[in-house]
Amino acid sequence: MKRLAAASAAALSLSIAVAPLAAATPPDGDIERTELATGTGDQPVQIQTAGPTTLYVQELLLHPPASSGWHTHPGVEHTVITGGTVTLQTADQCAPTPYLAGQAIVIPAGVPHVVRNDSPHDANAVATYTLPADQPVRADAPAACP
């Protein structure tokens, strides 16, 4: 009888442990996914908003010698460099910092910055902006660095 009780308890424990796996559903139907960009950054990321948000995703092509001009965003910007090299300057860090394909950039809301393509080749990026609803994607800003 003790063996039966132990076996029943073990079976119950096993069924509880695997129940969440059994409840998962596999993909169904014809779904195509296109990975737009994958990049690795060197800082942790946390997104908090005070209310409704709008998410913008843009693919950027910067022909040389393109410059975004100094500007800000009302929400956080996450950008992955997908080709070439861009140079970033922020009001917090005036020294130009190059970013290569495969690297990610995070720019907090309200930080003035400029992105340039100083190379002789095109540069590509995918940018995602998490903004307060009904706010413009960007606002021009005065130059924060020489």
Automatic annotation (TrEMBL):
Pfam families: Cupin_2. Transmembrane segments: none annotated. Residues 1-24 form the signal peptide. It comes from the Bacteria. Keywords: Signal. Residues 62-126 form the Cupin type-2 domain. This is Cupin. The lineage of its organism: Bacteria, Bacillati, Actinomycetota, Actinomycetes, Mycobacteriales.
